[in-house]
């Protein structure tokens, strides 16, 4: 069973405290996918979103998504590593060595299907050394502040609506109106090539997603993006109304 902390479309959070006991009782492996949101848990104020993690058998997040590590870098934890090694361990004579039963060597070829694996640890280590805990926490908090700044700008414009609670660095919003209207707005935004947005569907509604994710993003960029979106919306609505009157 896979529970998700920070879903891709709208960054929603499954309730681990409700799902976990059911999985444990029924002897179902519970994996937690926290690909994007997992990085935020370095901040104490977001750790409540992890409540119930003790029920999990495995947990995965991607430092390359929000922890300033270059692509790709995925960190996985397992509660009982013998569950993995028991499934994947192969011991042909030509791969055996004197230290394998000593407990001093962690041989990751027993944790996966391939014999070899890329060495991603060093680039993560460099980021941790360069930024430190405080630097990484400030990076996350800054993005969250900027997402709430964008949310505030959207809420000031009565033509728009917020479509999901803003928890971390993602704002889901749309023009009040049809899906076709919002598809047209997204098309005009992305064709202008000043910013790029990726959409999603929420409860049958076509929704635009504004994701704060650049290392160098500042408040001025958020203001610029909103002014750009607002102007394109104004232009689109004029055209939309003219076409509607003509029909």
UniProtKB/TrEMBL annotation:
Q: In which pathway does it act?
A: Catecholamine biosynthesis; dopamine biosynthesis; dopamine from L-tyrosine: step 2/2
Q: Which SUPFAM superfamilies match?
A: PLP-dependent transferases
UniProt-listed Enzyme Commission number(s): 4.1.1.28
Give an example GO biological process: catecholamine biosynthetic process
One of the record's GO molecular function terms: pyridoxal phosphate binding
Keyword terms of this UniProt record = Catecholamine biosynthesis, Decarboxylase, Lyase, Pyridoxal phosphate
Which cofactors does this protein require?
pyridoxal 5'-phosphate
Residues with the N6-(pyridoxal phosphate)lysine modification: 65
The record, for Pfam families, names: Pyridoxal_deC
Name the enzyme group at the top EC level.
lyase
Kindly state one GO CC term assigned in the UniProt record: cytoplasm
Subunit organization: Homodimer.
Name the family. Belongs to the group II decarboxylase family.
Its protein name is Aromatic-L-amino-acid decarboxylase
| Annotated organism of origin | Cariama cristata (Red-legged seriema)
């Amino acid at each position: 069973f896979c529970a998700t902390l920070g879903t891709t479309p709208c960054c929603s959070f499954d309730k681990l405290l409700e799902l976990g006991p059911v999985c444990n009782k029924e002897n179902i492996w519970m994996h937690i996918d926290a690909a994007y949101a997992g990085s935020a848990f370095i901040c104490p104020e977001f750790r409540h979103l992890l409540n119930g993690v003790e029920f999990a058998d495995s947990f995965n997040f991607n430092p390359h998504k929000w922890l300033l590590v270059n692509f790709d870098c995925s960190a996985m934890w397992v509660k009982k590593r013998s569950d993995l090694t028991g499934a994947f361990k192969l011991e042909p004579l030509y791969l055996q060595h004197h230290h394998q039963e000593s407990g001093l060597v962690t041989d990751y070829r027993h944790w996966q299907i391939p014999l070899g694996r890329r060495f991603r640890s060093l680039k993560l280590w460099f980021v941790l050394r360069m930024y430190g805990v405080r630097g990484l926490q400030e990076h996350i908090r800054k993005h969250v502040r900027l997402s709430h700044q964008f949310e505030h700008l959207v809420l000031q414009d009565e033509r728009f609506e917020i479509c999901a609670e803003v928890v971390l660095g993602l704002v889901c919003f749309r023009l009040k109106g049809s899906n076709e209207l919002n598809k047209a707005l997204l098309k005009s935004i992305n064709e202008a090539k000043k910013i790029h947005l990726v959409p999603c569907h929420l409860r049958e509604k076509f929704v635009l997603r504004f994701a704060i994710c650049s290392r160098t993003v500042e408040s001025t960029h958020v203001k610029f993006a909103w002014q750009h979106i607002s102007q394109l919306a104004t232009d689109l609505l004029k055209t939309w109304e003219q076409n509607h009157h003509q029909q």
